[in-house]
Amino acid sequence: MIDVSADRLGFYTDQKMIEARGNVRLTLSNGVTVQGDACVVDLSLQRFVVAGHVRADTPAGRYSGAAFADFLQFDRVYFIPLEAMPDRWTFLNGDYAHPEMGREMPGDAFFLPDFSAMRPFIVGKSARIVPGQYVQFAPARFVFLNGGISTPPLPTYLRNYSDNPNFSVNSLSGATYDVPYGFAGSAHSLETLHFRYDQQRKTYGAFEHHTVFGDYGYTVFSLNPATQPAKQWNLLSYAGGEKSAVNLNAQLFTYQYGLSRPLSSNGFIDLQETRSLRGSAVRFEATQSYDSFLAQPSLGYYGDPSHPFRPNHPLVFGLSWLGFDKHLAQSGLTFRFISGVSFIHDAYGISTTGHKDANSSYAGALIYTPVYRAPLGTGANAAYQLQRTWLSFPNKVDTQTLTVSDSKRFSNTFGLTATVLWQSVFVNDINTLYASPNGTTGLVPQPASPNGLPMLAGIPTQFPAVRNTAYILTAAWAPSPNFQFTTVAQENHYGPIQQPLVAGPPRYQIFGDVRTRLSNTLFLDVGRAYFFNWGNQRWSPSFTLQVSSQ
Amino acid sequence: MIKVTSNRFTIWTVALLAVAVSCSVCSGWQPPTAAQAAQITQTPPPDRAAASPTPTPLSFNGQVIDLERGYVIFSTGDALKVATDLRIVDATTGNSPNYELTPGFFAVAVLSPATGLVMELHTSRKPLATGTPIAQVPRQFVLAASTPHPNPDLIPRSAAFTSVLSKRVTVTISVNVPPDTPFNDNVYMATDTSGWNAQAVKMQRTDGLHFRIQMELAGGTEIHYLFTRGTWNTVERDPSGLQRKARTLYVPGGDAQVIAATINRWADLP
User: Fold this and answer.
1) In terms of CB atoms within 10 Å, which of A159, A472, A477, B206 comes out highest?
2) What is the pLDDT, as a whole number, of residue B51?
3) What is the pTM of this model?
4) Do B224 and A165 touch (CB under 8 A)?
5) Smallest Cα distance from B267 to chain A, Å
6) Tens digits of per-residue pLDDT, B197-233?
7) Residue B213 and residue A461: Cα distance in Å, rounded?
8) DSSP annotation of A428
9) Which residues of B touch A366 (CB under 8 A)?
10) Which residues of chain A make contact with B153, given a CB cutoff of 8 A?
């Protein structure tokens, strides 16, 4: 850990560097204190240099000199002493008592990057740096529009740049925009406030907490929104290793003002345990829903003492088996199998079936080819997937997908892929379905599907027999790493009926997307679809616009 | 024979003096003395010649990280002694610099060849083109109490090749996706350098099973990444459907690097 303070301190996000100027003071976790005129900390390379009138207070005594560079990852400190005469000293492995004198140094050990043409993203007076984990500014002043706007000093801001992806596990619902503000944390945790906007809730605030345990464990808790009465409390947790893992997903929905007693409260909990076997894996999953967590009102439900208050708590649990990919002898084909069984209980009746208890089972297979050389210098491949699901209502669901693609690369930067995608769903009884909360039933879980059936071309399946054949042409052009253009033209033939505003996807649609570099680390994505006057719709309602960091 | 030679020497000496006198009449040039004339004609062999004086002052440029206690110290770690009457001027205007000389400014140090002291410092806030790079300063001018000796840390790794001509490395990543990947979905790389943005690097479809991306990265870059379909709910998983460790990309150097990866499963698909 490094604590830096100075008259002026700037954080250059593009460069991942911090520059400090004027009365610079660094305190390291090993007790060493370094003071000087200027300092640059390189967060990527995990090293820093302090230059100009340097005084280093070490466990072995005080040294004064011209520059002090610490390569933290290598435990090497390079120092230019000016005690009696200039020299070059290297402190090895934290030994400040016995410098190695005259040892050659890296050529850029004391180089100070030139930031004169750049604006810092954050300015402040002090920062705490945990190399490879996070940097924390207190207070922080943000600079926007190349210095045109800056915020007043804000409370502590913590920016996490850990290489552990568990810090990015997201427990919040989607939003039109989301501005995260980390305000506390450590090498293993992060507390973030989110300023969000979406069409339904408008502007609101949320809170999210992350705790990570190595590569295979995390707990994420969030309250979203935190500033409106309709609250959603989320908990995601994952613990395990390379052979097995337990995954918990719980959500609580309350209606409450502030943190007062909720007026309503319901939720669900989903628990998964996955174990790897030889050549396959098994997963147990249970989902329990709770219609209400509130105690029975003293006056009874709806104020009627005779009205029973029995909240429902349906349960689904099951076991699924996932086969690994296997080669089919010497044919070049690869296949995999999946299967599962589950039990469903709902005291108030499962969906519209009226059954309180039911079970389901499913089996499926996927077989596919590699990419074969085809005429005209193209590459062709195919994949076929089928699955049958039995429900004890009774009901039976068959789904099939066949994909055949042929691709050609015209140059290193441009390629075309032509694809025929054939999909079908057959249901014995379209009225006895189940909106499954998890995948062990063999049905498509919510919210990906409203009724458990697969969506074809993005359309919920509403008929007993549905087919769609899509002809897709994808063109991808990337003349440089800084510019990418993709366009997808698609023709759909949907049955049994494909009519605007009635059923089925647009007959023709084309989608274009451009991604171009805005700065060293920012990209802009702009996309829009055209529907060829399908139901009087030509263009998609709006552009998709996204600025993302790389 | 000796006498003849002597006569020839005398004759040529007289002739040269005559020419010199005739030239001096028109140009004002003074004739050399007899001793000078003897030097002209008796140039010693090169290995016995006196040291040739340096015709111009030595000047070295670089980034200055400190100026104190009579030394100017460059970012190479080289310290030069400055004269007591050191003159500091702005390299462009020739006047005193109107900016603060804090660590990191650039300068050309003009050394006196005779004393080895820095007589003038021409400063700038931008790198300067004049002068010799400070890394090439003759060692006799650099002050160091200790005798330099090699650093074993700086021996290049056998697998690493770095070149000034190939600072940026073209890295091509090609990934084989599961066959049940929804055809209209995009594939991205989420990277630690982006704060694990799930859409950090967009990949381009090359055929029914492959996506690729070409990036230019500096040698020595290390990136951790995972493939996604745009969100963390659609991140890649291992064959059992378990969370996998982040992949690591290290760019050792050279001109190009090709990486072939395979995604076993997606988190949201069975």
Assistant:
1) A159
2) 60
3) 0.81
4) yes
5) 12
6) 898 899 999 999 999 998 888 777 788 999 999 988 8
7) 36
8) S
9) 179-180
10) 74, 76, 106
Tell me which CATH homologous superfamily contains domain B164-266.
Immunoglobulins (2.60.40.10)
Residue A124 lies in a domain: yes
Task: State pLDDT tens for residues A447-489.
Answer: 888 889 999 988 999 999 999 999 999 999 999 878 999 999 9
Last residue of a domain, one of A115, A132, A149: A132
Is pLDDT above 80 for B19?
Answer: no
Three-class secondary structure of residue B261 per DSSP:
strand
Averaging pLDDT over each range in A107-121, A398-412, A515-529, which range is the top one? A398-412
Q: At residue A326, does pLDDT exceed 80?
A: yes
Looking at the DSSP bridge assignments, the partners of residue A343 are A317, A359
Q: Is the pLDDT of residue B1 over 90?
A: no
Give a three-class secondary structure readout of A130-197. ECCCEEEECCEEEEEHHHCEECCCECCEEEECCCCHHHHCCCCCCCCEEEEEEEEECCCEEEEEEEEE
Domain that holds residue A96: 2-132
Identity of the amino acid at A469:
T
- A-chain residue closest to B147, CA distance: A102
> What pLDDT sits at residue B255?
76
What are A318's two structure tokens?
């099951």
Quick one: B58-141 is in which CATH superfamily?
A: Nucleic acid-binding proteins (2.40.50.140)
A43, A80, A83: best to mutate for the B interface, most B CBs within 10 A:
A80
Residue A172, Cβ density class (10 Å: 0-12 exposed, 13-18 middle, ≥19 buried):
buried
| B174 close contact with A: CB closer than 8 A | no
Amino acid present at A11:
F
